[in-house]
Amino acid sequence: MKTAFIIHGFNGDTTYTFGPHLKSELEKRNYNVIMPNFPIRTDATYLGWASILNQYKELFDENTIVVCHSIGNPFIIKYISENNLNAKLYVSVAGFCKLFIVPDREDLNKAFVDFQVSEKDINYCKNNIKFRYSLYSDNDHVIPFNILEDFVNKLESNPVFISGVGHMGNRENTKKLPQILNIVDEISN
Length: 189
Prior knowledge:
Rossmann fold; alpha/beta
């Protein structure tokens, strides 16, 4: 059975926004779907998250799908690189890899530094993940538009621009992202 990972962001809201629907639909496509519950907010650290994902490290292979939301993106890029893993498909949702400051959010800014990726990490992922797609919007309230676009370019991913859906999390009540399933179906053919 093929494996798919759904990696949540800083607040963990992916587990109750678009995550459940995506999990259900991927299971219908014969994927073993893993949605790790990582420590959130001020408890979110790269090492803490890595220690949890280490339990599933052996499931990464050339058929693995990884879908990440927000800070889950720099996490998985760094994790895949540091552990010499590969995957078939990586879909970023509101993804970024450039360090930036969110005003009045010291907790988030601290996590951004801890999850920061290097050029080596990015290059490793470009060479070891066959298909890369990035979903992003023009009104993300967390990540500036230029940072989202920079991510698409740095990772050389296929851009999937969706107007008006913000950060695609709890605030927007994003329960479904059919674009992800369209991508999965497209690369499966």
